[in-house]
Amino acid sequence: MKISLITPAKKHSKNGNRTSAVRWAGFLREGGHQVRIDMVYENEPTDLMIALHAWRSASSVARYRARYPKGPLIVALGGTDVNTFLKSDPEVTENTMDQAHALVCLHDLIADVLPERFQDKLHVIKQSALPLSRPRQPSIRHFDVCVIGHLRDEKDPFRAALAARQLPETSRLRVIHLGKAHTPTWARQATAEMKRNPRYLWKGEVPTWRVRREYARTQLMVISSNQEGGANVVSEALVAGVPVIASDIPGNIGLLGRDYPGYYPVRNDTALADLLHRAETNPIFLQSLLKHGLQLRENFLPQQEAAGWHRIIELVS
To answer: What's the N-to-C CA distance of the chain in angstroms?
Structure first.
């Protein structure tokens, strides 16, 4: 089957949307399909479309529908679809969703915020990650905490740095931040934070191998986002065996579960500082985060994600 996979992210971008599209294409090609990834649909012959992001891919969906009025269509919902555009531009967003034969979401709580008419065609396929090739060896000299995410407002990128400022002088904690600054202003803020805060180290955009090396060295990961559609960095950390501390947003709770012990109130750096200090000084607490993560690990392995995509392709074909 020829599949057109549309993503708003540029070809060489390390954006999460592009990473997801490339991974999904790999699963589908392994299943025997021909997959073409584009930013926009240009009327190429195809048997099925997968549109990543309802709002941003709306024009491509409209063009596909004009050529193939009854063609199979899967729409994968982005975090901003659910958290932003369903409110700011519901006509466009819902129109795209109405045209889909199936909707894919990336965490368990998206159903809670969707209009009732979309519930029956909603499917959860959680993003996956590969295990590390070697056992983890966290730093002994420092208690390193990683933040993996680009510097933009949705990620609340400096929350861990602000929390680290509040730790006692005896703390060995450092925040290692890997991610691209989306604007020069964000880069200046990161540079200024490093000058002011010796516990914060911003490394900028790095290749995948460098991120995986950080998972091998870090004591835990913080995901501090204000909104998420189901962040792949959570999958990566859990599969790597890295404990996670997360903001209590639906996008994180929908991956980690309501009973996960490592949440803090979103945007609350004082509460985050308390959790970080507890993780550093209380091995039992840190072990509890690791134990919960390991119990969830199987949900985020590649074979699970691949099976989900093969099931949904068969469903709509």
So the answer is: 9
